[in-house]
Amino acid sequence: MRAEGASAIGTAGVEGAFLIAFGTLAPPVDVAAEVEADAVAKMWLIVPCFAVILGFLQGVCMMFKFFACRTIDMAGAEKVASSALSHGKPLSAFTKGTTVHGGGKMGLIRGYKYTLEANPGEDFDPRFKPALTPAEMLFMGVFEGKYLNDCTDEFPQEWFLMAAGAGRLSPDKRDVSVNHFGVDSRQPLTVWRENGWAPSPRGSRAAKGKARDILADREKNPDERGWFQWYCRYWMGRRIPDLDNVQIGRWRSFARHAGAVRAGCSPGALTCRRRERQALLQWAYNPFI
Fold it and tell me: Beta-carbon neighbour count of residue 227 at 10 Å?
């Protein structure tokens, strides 16, 4: 059973994903299984023509001047796409029982791996109902395009191919224009570590209380990149009960920012409180409220 409120870019189809990226369509809530299979088939039709797709998207941007238009970093996008194709696997390769090796160059735990205890996107805690999947978030533009670009061997190829095709990845340097709302809306990893929100090689002086004790301990929290990395792994099907409970609690607390946007902005006024909207997007809330 698919987690309520969480949908995958692949299930929306290429056309729907394109509309979501430019803020003209709210993300879908759910689709039938046969539509998902059809969308995956479409994905594999476009992969061999990746460079053509990049050029097409850039051309559409230039012709119609969409709200989120930006210059696509062809070299950077192709670098990530090539890595995904060479080292990654399609979403269909990940199922309950699959052992996944943690990717990336930042791993505090060498050789980290985990076994999926649920199928991707399924069996979520009933308290956790994100509006967006990791694939949708990357496709729409988050974290200045720098997040997880070195993890193409851990997560589905589709995540990176679609985000790269939309010009939302910037592997060589952080680029605020990659963000969907064109603003910076996060603190650096050093601040997360100092506050005990993420594990640190040296530990954290700020880690006080059960939640931060878990978050700051690399033996209890293998997600050194913070909440979004946890969400990616949770969405894939990894389960660590104590850590999951803490991170779900943090996500629920973030709902206050949605309340601030509703209180301070007219419905659909997407240029109002862009920083908070970008933050909502980066916590898997609907930023188009």
Answer: 21
Please write the tens of the pLDDT for every residue from 88-97.
Answer: 999 999 999 9
Full DSSP string of 202-231:
T--TT--SHHHHHHH-TTT---TT-HHHHH
Nearest CA-CA partner of 120 in 98, 140, 95, 143: 95
Q: Please give the structure tokens belonging to residue 5.
A: 């409120």
CA distance 80 to 151: 10
- Give the pair of three-digit tokens for residue 109: 């735990």
**C-beta of residue 6 within 8 angstroms of C-beta of residue 133:** yes
Tell me the three-class secondary structure of 117-184, residue by residue: CCCCCECCCCCCCCCCCHHHHHHHCCHHHCCCCCCCCCCEHHHHHHHHHCCCCCCCCCCHHHCCCCCC
Q: How much is the pTM?
A: 0.75
Contacts 24+ apart (CB under 8 A), 264-272: 270/23, 270/67, 270/181
**Residue closest to 236 by CA, chosen among 14, 6, 62, 5:** 6
